[in-house]
# Entry
Amino acid sequence: MAVSAALASFKRRRLVVITMGEPSSGVSPLQKDRDIKDYGSETNKLLKRIVWHIIEEDKATLDKKSTKDSILRTTKYTGIHKNVISKMLADGKPPTVEDRELVIDRRKIQDSLISMYFKERRMPTVTQLFNALEDLPCYVDVDTFKKILVKMGYVFHMYNKDNTFYVMEKKSVTIQRYKYLKTIQQYRTENVPIYYIGIASVTKDQKILNLEKTLQTDASNITQYILFTVNEKKVQHIKIVSSVSYDVLKMWLMSYVLTELPLQSVCVLEDSNVHRETLINVPTINSVKVVMVEWLEYHNIPCDINMSKSELLKLIETCTNTKDNNYVIDNIVGTYNHKLLRLPECINGVSVAAEVLSLLNKKVNAVETNATILGNMSEALISMLSDVVQKEELRLLDEDIKVDTILDEVFSNTTKANINENDFFFSLSDSD
# Structure
C-alpha cells in the first residue's frame, strides 16, 4: 500500500526525534491530552501526511470507511492517541506533492532570523528557525533545511558555553550586501544614471521566470529568453535572444546597450555564476607555477618559471591584488566608460528589473507580445517601482546596521567569540 513507505519513514523519524532531542513532555505517546507541538514541527508534518493518506485510501475501498475508522487505524499504526490525531486533522489537509515546485524564499528566512534577533536578542538554532517558518514546502525536513541554509549563505556558530550551534548569515554575504547598498546609495546621491539589467525567460505555460529560476528550469520548457534594461523612467533595449549565456549577454551589451547609455552610467547586474567568467585565473597557494607566472605577467611583474612557488607567491602578495575585479563582463562595461555594479544573490529581488518582471507576470496575455507589454509600461509606473526599490534598499541598510549592534551584544556574552565562518558549514554530499 502507498501508506507503507510513509509509515516506515515515520517510525524512523520517531527514532530520530528521540535521539536528537525534539521537544517532549515526558509522557507516553497514547496520552490523549498531549499537546500537538510536543511532537515537533517535522514530526507533526509527517504524521499529518500519514493520516491523510490513510483517510484517502480508506475512502477508496469498497466499504468506504469513515474518518473515525481511519483515525483509529492511524492510532494502531503510530501509537499516537486518537484525540491528538483529531487535533492535527483540524488544521486542514497538508500540502500536496506539487509543492516541490515551490522555491523557498530566502527573504522569508532572513526576515524570520532578523525578527528573532530584534525580539529575543539571540541567534536561533536550526530547529527553532525551521519551526518558525510555517509555510515551508512539505518535502523539507530539518536536514534538508540545513543544506538549503548553507546554499543560501548561512553558517552555524557554536556558543562555547552550551555547545549548541546557532544560525547566522555568512559574514562575507552580509558584507557584500552592505557594500552594494552603500555604493548604490552613493550613486543616487551623485545623480549617476543607473540602469538595471533584466534577464528573464518565458515558459510554455506563459510564466515569466527571473534569471535564478530560468537557470533551474529545463530548457525544453522555455519558449523564449528576454533581455532588457530599465532606469527610473522606462524599459529600454528589449531583445528576444536564444539563451542567457555569457556570450549572448556580452554581444547584447556591446551591440545594443553600452553605446547608447549616457557616459559614466552604472549597470546593475545580478551576481550569477553565468556572469563570472574571468580574464585570467586567480592564483592560490595550491595553484601550479604556470598559473602564478601567467598572473604576474598579466600584471607586468617580472618573474621566471624557474622561481620557487614560495618566491612567486611572495611576488603575487606584495605586487598584485588578487581581489581586483577580474570579471570579463565588468571590464567590457568599463571600456565603454561605464561601471558595472553586481547585485548580490541574497537580495536579487531588490531591483527595478525584478519589479518589472513581477508586474509582467500579471500582465501576460494572448494579444500582446511580452516585448510590447514591457515597452508600453508607463513612466509613472516605472517611477513608482523605482521608489519601492529605493525604500527597500534604505530599509535593508538600516537593518544591517542594527543587526551588527545586536550581534555585538550577543557575542560579548559568549565566553569566547571565535567566529571562523568556514568552520561552521554543514557538510554537503556531491549530489547536493
Observations:
- Strands lie at 154-158, 165-169, 194-203, 208-210, 222-230, 235-241, 266-270, 339-343.
- The radius of gyration is 27 Å.
- The first strand starts at residue 154 and ends at 158.
